[in-house]
Design a protein that fits this description.
By secondary structure, the chain is mainly α. The chain has one domain. It contains 3 helices and no strands. Helix 1 runs parallel beside helix 3 and helix 2 runs antiparallel to helix 3. The N and C termini lie far apart (45 Å).
């Protein structure tokens, strides 16, 4: 049981770190917007990261090259 919790906690930390890196590297956001999104990611654990990742996906309007 406790081993499963460790894996779940580790996965959650990995997911939040991934979204944090994506937000920090996003060039279209000002530093204040980045700060607010990082607070959302880390203060509301899974849901905040999912919301921030969804906003990044809709904000990303760069044309993709094949």
């Amino acid at each position: 049981m406790s081993e499963n919790l460790i894996y779940i906690f580790g996965g959650l930390l990995f997911y939040q770190a991934y979204v944090t890196i994506r937000v920090v590297r996003h060039k279209a956001y000002s530093s204040a917007q980045k700060r607010r999104q990082l607070l959302l990611i880390w203060l509301v654990p899974f849901i905040g990261a999912a919301i921030a990742l969804a906003v990044l996906a809709t904000d990303d309007k760069r044309p993709r090259t094949p």
